[in-house]
Fold this sequence. Notes:
Chain A is α/β, with parallel strands linked by helices.
Amino acid sequence: MSVTIEAERVDQLLRIIVAAATGDYELRVPLVEEDDDEFLEVELGVNYLLEELSLNKARSDSQREQLAARADELAEQQTELMQALSTPVIAVWPGVLALPLVGRVDDERAAMVTATLLERVAAERATHVILDLTGVGAIAGNTMPALLRMVRAIGLLGATCLLTGISPAVARQIVALGADDSGAPVRALAQLSDALAHVLAQKGALRR
Amino acid sequence: MPFRYEERVSPKGRPYVRLHVSGELSLADAHEYAGHFRAGGRYHGMHTLSFVEKGTEYGPEARKIFLEVGQSAPHATVTSSALVRAAINLMSRFSPKTGRYRMFATEPEALAWLDDKEA
Lengths: 208, 119
């Protein structure tokens, strides 16, 4: 079989194949009824191939978008879960909230703890908040002021904040910051149970 | 509608489907066609004479369905379009050669071939 093809048709076809090789599947070989020869089938075949590639690319893009959306959704759920786990505020007695902090506390976490705790204090009209630092290994250098500001904010809401489980390192940080001078009086007790007993005794005294 | 179906009888008394095809054939159109010609369909096993108009286009998803359907009986296509012919030739390359399908330029030669073909 021998077919004579105009150079222009071959050039056009090659241009489109090269474009497709660089990822552009949107071009098509222009087809005309007058080119009634075997090469027309080749040109149409290239167009069919491009349509298929274009269709598959669209499907793949759509799947990628769905995966990205799912990943965002999961990341959001994970953040929510982390927030919930990192600020486990427990109502240990009517009007008494306890927050056992575990792990490292940085600025971001301190801000999250503050927001959650203040919200709960206001919502439950808490009179006392016990912030247990037994599980806190370290507090980032500039985070302690944020925690002390939280203690002060709790005071402004009419509740008393008690710190328990303070490690020697954390104690040194508090002293270095001169907490009492900064207007955030820190009432500290050795253990969470001590603080609870103290609060309950205080509440009992109020009832009398 | 891209498809128009008519049931007719050939000069030799054989019932056949006369199918008129035009426009852009989508996936839904291909499914409609497949429903008629697959096993259990109204025209399954019937001789078919189709007229495919100039400008008829087979969408990428539709092409796959047409390839799957195959020919359950002799099918002659009449078209004057070089592009339609090229499209059908291309699709035919993926189908097994059964001798049940042919393209023609005119209706009389297509009908004569169809009339001579046993199912």
